[in-house]
Amino acid sequence: MSVNRLLSSWRARPEVAMNIEEWRIIPSRPATTSPLPTDLHPQLKNGLHRLGIESLYSHQGQAWHHVHTGKNLVIVTGTASGKSLCYNLPILDRILRDENARALYLFPTKALAQDQAAYLSNLIETFYQEASLANSTQDIQSKCITTSDLAIYDGDTPSGMRPTIRRNARLLLSNPDMLHIGILPHHTSWAQFFSHLQFIVIDEMHIYRGVFGSHFANVLRRLKRIAKYYGSYPQFILTSATIANPSELASKMIEEDCEIIDEDGSARGQQTFLIFNPPVVNKDLGLRRSALHESIRLVDDLLKYNVQTIIFGRSRRTVELILTYLHQKKIKTLNKDHYAINLRSDQIRAYRSGYLL
What tens-digit pLDDT sequence spans the chain (357 residues)? Predict the structure, then answer.
């Protein structure tokens, strides 16, 4: 494998190996599963079968149980462990059984909302197709949720679409800023939505810390107060990356008790975890080489070995600098014909939340 060849190369090169502070192998693990819930709506069950999903991961099964017992929930499992299905499955089940039910999804960025909307649209479309096989055409709309019930409401939402979304959306995706500025101050226009609000999903809750977190907690207080005014008491479902105190943070954020799910039942391949410290360039002053330039050097190795890579920067300027340097290195390397076959100009791209493409 190209990754193993790259790691062997790094072990053999002193300028890399001597600066690796930690080299840890995380072993693979099999999945821990639970059967599909017996009380799952038939359309969802058939739709999951259509997607090739015959069982749930254990943490997804636990989430189903806790949500159906009316508890608030915080889910802390690994990346790509299926957290989205933990909340989407019980919410879609409720939406199918109660034509008035509403759910609000809050994401810290517009980009995350767009990603989740695409995922939900595909999921809903699958369930809709499954319903169309079991029901006559005229009955489908009344028996299955459709993509028209799903909407994003943020600063990019055209003003002409907003009244329709306020009236018809059953699954609403937004962010804290839009909730604070565009929804809560105009709650009378959202009376139908708030009257039937049953779920509030808060994704990536670990982002809400410090001053931003305290502001968001106040926004949630307003949200709960307005929901109560319209007679609804929604359940909260929160997700997070691995942090030391997820239950404490979630409980303080929503000011209610939360059940925690932190045992990841998803399968995982073997992982290699490295901590690289840039080499010292001045021992007397304790100066090291730039982390940015060392990152570029290491990523250049990853590209040469055709390893798919994501680089995170602390600012947009840092990301765009890395992109510029990598493009420059690519041109020089292509001139030497080292990896011209494997790398195209569009294979190194920058991304931030404001980009639409």
Answer: 688 899 999 999 998 999 999 999 999 999 999 999 999 999 899 989 988 999 999 999 999 999 999 999 999 998 889 999 999 999 999 999 999 999 999 999 888 899 899 999 988 988 877 666 665 444 444 457 788 899 999 999 999 999 999 999 999 999 999 999 999 999 999 999 999 999 999 999 999 989 999 999 999 999 999 999 999 999 999 999 888 899 999 999 999 999 999 999 999 999 999 999 999 989 888 899 999 989 988 988 888 888 888 888 888 888 888 888 888 876 555 554 444 334 555 678 887 655 555
What CATH number should be reported for the domain whose range is 33-261? Answer: 3.40.50.300
Considering only the C-alpha atoms of the chain, give the largest distance between any 2 of them, rounded to a whole number of Å.
80
User: Domain residue spans in the chain?
Assistant: 2-26+273-347, 33-261
Which H helix or E strand runs over 104?
A: strand 102-106
Q: Which among 255, 246, 310, 272 is positioned nearest to 6, based on CA atoms?
A: 272
| Separation of alpha carbons 21 and 36, rounded Å | 44
Evaluate whether 95 touches 163 at the Cβ level (below 8 Å): no
Concatenated DSSP letters for 258-304? -EEE----S-B--EEEEEE-PPEEETTTTEE--HHHHHHHHHHHHHH
Place of tokens 């679409």: 161
Tokens coding 8? 């062997």
Count Cβ atoms below 10 Å from residue 252 Cβ, excluding itself. Answer: 14
Q: Are 246 and 216 contacting, i.e. CB atoms less than 8 angstroms apart?
A: no
CA distance 29 to 266: 8
